[in-house]
Amino acid sequence: QDSSLPVGVFIWEVENGRDEDVEVSIMFSLQNGTGAKEDRSGGHWNEPFTLQKDGERVAGVLLHHCAAVNPFTLAISAREKAGTGVTHVTAFNPAGLGREVWQDLLQDGKLDSPTGKSSPTEKGEVTAAAVCASCRVPAHGHKTLELALAWDMPCVHFGSKEKLHLRRYTRFFGSKGDAAPALSHYALTHYEEWERKIEAWQNPILENSQLPSWYKSALFNELYFMTDGGTIWMEVPPDCCAQDLQGPAGAGLSHLLPVLREYGRFAYLEGQENRMYNTYDVHFYASFALVMLWPKLQISLQYDIAVTVVNEDVQPRQYLMCGQTAQVKIKNVVPHDIGDPGDEPWQRVNAYLMHDTADWKDLNLKFVLQVYRDYYLTHDSLYLQDMWPVCQAVMESELKFDMDNDGLIENSGFADQTYDAWVVHGASAYCGGLWLAAVCMMCKMAEVLGDTEVQQKYLDILNKGKEAFERRLWNGKYYNYDSSGSGASSSIMSDQCAGQWFLGACGLDQGEFEVFPKSHVLSALKTIFEKNVLSFAGGTMGAVNGMRPDGVPDASSVQSNEVWIGVVYSLAATMIQEGMVEEGFRTAEGCYRTVWERLGMAFQTPEAYREKKVYRSLAYMRPLSIWSMQLALERRAGQAPAPTELPQGPTHP
Fold first, then answer.
1. Is a pLDDT exceeding 90 seen at residue 457?
2. Which of 52, 130, 238, 447 registers the highest number of CB atoms within 10 A of its CB?
């Protein structure tokens, strides 16, 4: 409940080091609007409010923003208590000098607190409000002033304006648009409990002296994107039935409606410059943050993907890179994304226009890998049972990419995976490794569910595929980028162990489940560390995506000589899983220092940068993969969960 609330709390600790008492006032001012041109559209107005409940009183100003689409109310407020007074200015012109507000404040440390509503703004006019908290701080004493911001936009339309969506918090605070006072009151009377919970969550990591301080900063601060990634968390309408969500072919997902009804629908953008929700090839990396911290939101997101898998969209569309026309979404294939906020997400998927992703090799595999990983970490066997037929369907679709029936899929000679500008021919370390990991997890899921026929089918594929992978790609030190024999095929790809990364995260990396020989994995990781990390920018910028064997970055594509921060964090996690803890931290540290310190891109971590002068796509989803480093560290410390067969999930009639 509390994670869904549209509130922020600003706590000011005031210490008086003097020998006499001091009067202190802190003012919070805010413009009515979002800083967009609609702020001047006219008809916006403000009014003061107070709310007393359970012996606690909160006072402030409501700023009603009466836009034609997605109207909302902002609230600025402060907590009134013994010795703390709250005053306000209902409306002033934020485009002016603010003289009237400052003079009012400086006169006596308080604001005038006029009663009644302000007049609605004229067209072209903007308005703002201010609230002020004041107290007397005794000599050598200490006081706390508590202020809050709430924003109540309960009902939203996306760009197409076809459907009205209710935000998650309306479940608890109603959808009439009058919740801002109650939200403000709730925030100011609950934040201390939130602080205790945050400390209980963070302190075991912050107080662990064996973890470097930059890592603690990166781990928690990269989570900014969970809320700042254009994030939406919606309720399923109360009158919604299973058929509304399932589409023509989703009837097999028996827990779809209970899960979405209980936990809502969650989506976040690929990046602030990449306006597609839940971009799945990238979410594969970022999903560790969701499954480790809000596991039910990951499961809800997976149900949304599963529904899309089993349905289709036959509309034709032309794709930019190849000029060909194909249908938007074919059946039994994982979508690239669940839509564009400028259109109607969930309803119309695959907003991505570069390639026809039905021919991408990684999306289907990344669904299977996440399903087992989620089950392993949550023990939710109802989820596993629902996802099992979908996993079988996407793997059947994927099998067509094994052209020569050797148990290993082949890439198709274009950039047919998440590296969407880096061409791959034939068998490849990245997609081939993901394929074998997914085949292994199919065997494991079949074993858990007692499906011996499917288990045997994928065991046979796995045995053939492992032999083909080693024969076609292993060169004695690492796995070649691909098997084409072209100039770039012997490049050292930093992400060549992505399949092993997921296997290790699920405890499927040894004994009967050893897909890639341990000695080969270690040799590949050591080669990557030596070449892609230490031989690139003096070892100070993480791992370059592609490195030639002679120590020169691979310049065969615009992406091969980039560093992808989210990939580096996942590589570091893989190193930690394999016992290369120091190397893992050294690798990831280069990215943290580059982004958060040298480039000054704190809280807007980009997808990529190059050694010199170039960065790309600020505020991006993939770096949330740093949470896989934390999972790897917890597994090494023996804290990670062991899978059980207990049926869990929402229990509904």
1. yes
2. 130
Residue 101 burial class via C-beta count within 10 angstroms: exposed 0-12, middle 13-18, buried 19 and up:
buried
Q: Is residue 476 part of a domain?
A: no
Is residue 427 in a domain?
no
Structure tokens at 6: 């549209």
* 610/113 Cα distance (integer angstroms): 54
Per-residue model confidence (pLDDT) at position 613: 87
Buried b (16+ CB within 10 A) or exposed e, 337-370: bbbbbeebbbebbbbbeebbbbbbbbbbbbbbbb
The reply to whether 82 falls in a domain is yes
Domain annotation covers residue 551: no
Question: In this predicted structure, what is the pLDDT of residue 511?
Answer: 86
Token pair recorded at residue 28: 């919070």
Q: What are phi and psi of 440, to 5 degrees?
A: -60, -45
How many C-alpha atoms does 463 have within 13 Å on its Cβ side? 6
Residue type, 209: S
Spatial neighbors of 171 by CB under 8 A, at least 6 apart, are 1, 4, 235, 264
Residue 641 pLDDT grade (very low, low, confident, very high; cuts 50, 70, 90): low
Per DSSP, the three-state class of 649 is coil
Max CA separation in the chain (angstroms): 86
What six digits make up the tokens of 306? 């599963």
**What's the confidence (pLDDT) of residue 652?**
37
Assess contact for 435 and 410: CB atoms under 8 A: no
3-state secondary structure of 277: strand
Is 64's pLDDT higher than 60?
yes
User: Over the stretch 145-174, which tens digit does the pLDDT of each residue have?
Assistant: 999 999 999 999 999 999 999 999 999 999
pLDDT-based confidence at 646, cuts 50/70/90? very low
Helix (H, G, I), strand (E, B) or coil at 159: coil
State residue 250's pLDDT score: 82
CA 172 to chain centre: 24
12 is written with which tokens?
């000011």
The whole-chain average pLDDT of the chain stands at 95
Query: In the predicted model, what is the mean pLDDT of residues 415-423?
Result: 96
HSE-CB of 543 using CA atoms within 13 angstroms:
31
Question: 648 falls in which pLDDT band (50, 70, 90)?
Answer: very low
Alpha carbon distances (Å) from 582 to 205, 540, 577, 586: 17, 14, 11, 6
pTM to 2 decimals?
0.95
User: Cα 400 from chain centroid?
Assistant: 31
User: Based on the structure, what is the number of domains in the chain?
Assistant: 1
Neighbours of 451 (CB within 10 A): 17
Instruction: Note down the domain range covering 100.
Output: 2-204
Q: What is the pLDDT of residue 640?
A: 57
